[in-house]
Specification:
The protein has 95 residues and is mainly alpha-helical. The protein has one domain (5-89). It is built from four helices and no strands. It is elongated and about 50 Å long.
Length: 95
């Protein structure tokens, strides 16, 4: 199964590093968690916009590529415990 969790987490880590360079250290875990949540929301919105644009292509002839994916994807891409472990290792939140 294709999985981009590590790449997305690396992208968030890079954003956090640049954010701290500009704004200074996070005041607490909540502030850092809120920034992580904001970045993930931005990534999700960008991904959905790309998906919507892809769906407007004549190639798909009015069939939603998102619907095709959802019908064929089956199970989730990562186990929750693996994600919590990765979040803990990156010190994003206290879990």
């Amino acid at each position: 199964m294709i999985d981009f969790v590590s790449e997305i987490m690396d992208l968030v880590d890079e954003f956090l590093r640049q954010y701290e360079e500009r704004e200074g250290p996070f005041r607490n875990a909540l502030e850092k968690g809120l920034v992580v949540s904001f970045v993930l929301g931005c990534i999700r919105q960008d991904t959905e916009e790309i998906w919507d644009a892809l769906g407007q292509s004549p190639t798909f002839r009015g069939v939603s590529p998102r619907a095709i994916y959802e019908e064929s994807s089956g199970e989730g891409l990562s186990e929750e415990n693996e994600l919590l472990s990765e979040i803990r290792e990156r010190h994003w939140l206290e879990v």
